[in-house]
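Structure first, sequence second, as always.
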């Protein structure tokens, strides 16, 4: 299909995000900036359409639940890492933790790696496509198998519910991860 016949708002969330980012960068809601934000929000996704994946319906309730879990884990992990770093008697046990992946959607895998890296005390180092696992470095890990299970339950299960319809239904993960 040629660009002439494609809808202008094929990626509405991207259009809104670009327009909002433009307005935030301009620190102004003047008519000129509102019009330029609208123009950017319409034209940029339209020009990039060939490079963007097809829009798909996402489970927004699961996404909101995952967002809340991630924010909570970031707060708890910040406190835990601060205690580890500042505590006079702390002896962290760093470890490499391979986390097997059930996810297949590239955006979901990227989000999982981002969530792991954003949570203090863990860094996703590589996604091994041959082994279908993500390698995580943990600042303090006494049980790598349990940490891998926690990552899968707290983050991968909700991402499956958000991105992959044939994936398992997201459970309500409980407990804290540092």
């Amino acid at each position: 299909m040629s660009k002439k016949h494609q809808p202008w708002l094929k990626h509405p969330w991207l259009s809104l995000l670009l327009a909002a980012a433009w307005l935030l960068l301009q620190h102004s809601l003047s008519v000129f900036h509102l019009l330029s934000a609208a123009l950017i929000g319409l034209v940029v996704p339209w020009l990039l359409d060939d490079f963007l994946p097809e829009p798909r319906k996402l489970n927004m309730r699961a996404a909101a639940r995952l967002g809340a879990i991630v924010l909570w884990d970031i707060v708890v992990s910040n406190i835990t890492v601060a205690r580890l770093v500042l505590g006079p008697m702390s002896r962290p046990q760093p470890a490499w933790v391979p986390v097997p992946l059930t996810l297949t959607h590239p955006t979901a895998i990227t989000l999982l790696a981002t969530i792991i890296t954003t949570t203090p005390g863990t860094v996703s180092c590589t996604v091994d496509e041959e082994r279908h696992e993500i390698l995580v470095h943990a600042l303090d890990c006494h049980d790598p198998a349990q940490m891998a299970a926690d990552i899968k339950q707290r983050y991968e299960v909700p991402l499956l519910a958000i991105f992959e319809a044939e994936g398992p239904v997201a459970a309500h993960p409980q407990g804290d991860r540092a």
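Margin note: The first helix runs from residue 12 to 26.
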